[in-house]
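Subject: sequence -> structure tokens, single chain

Hey, anyone have a minute? Need the predicted structure for the following. Not urgent.
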Amino acid sequence: MAADADANAEEGGEVAGGGKRKKLIIIGAGGLVLLLALGAGAYFFLFSSSEPPPMVGEDGAIREAQKPVVFYDLPEMTVNLSTEGRTTYLKVRIALEVQDKEMIERIKPFLPRIMDAFQIYLRELRPADLEGSAGLFRLKEELLRRINLSVHPARVDGVLFKEILVQ
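Reply:
Had a minute. Here:
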């Protein structure tokens, strides 16, 4: 019987010792997490720069921060679209996006050429060409291509629709 009591005492000691070991592991892990959190906080506060972080695009490429731009409003245009019956009109107001005011001054002398290129292209469109976001995107890209051909060596960065009305 004494042998059984000694065995039970050893098992109880192992359980009690195991409980202390678990407490030490939990306390150690908590301390480690606390030290990591303090280290990360110190790193961000002490080593971060005042510059904004780089922007990452959808394709994973790092992009520069957006630079200020200038917008130039073109005169409103109303053209009749190419249709087989009832006359359909397109009224459009467009703004050009350029990098600075100097570029606007370089573009202004070409304004008659720009308007002519737009009028010729828009008159050949059908109402079906302007349906949906894909149609408007194609229109925007084509107008941008035509304007950059008209104002070369100056450059327009974007064509923005302020108003589009098909009637």
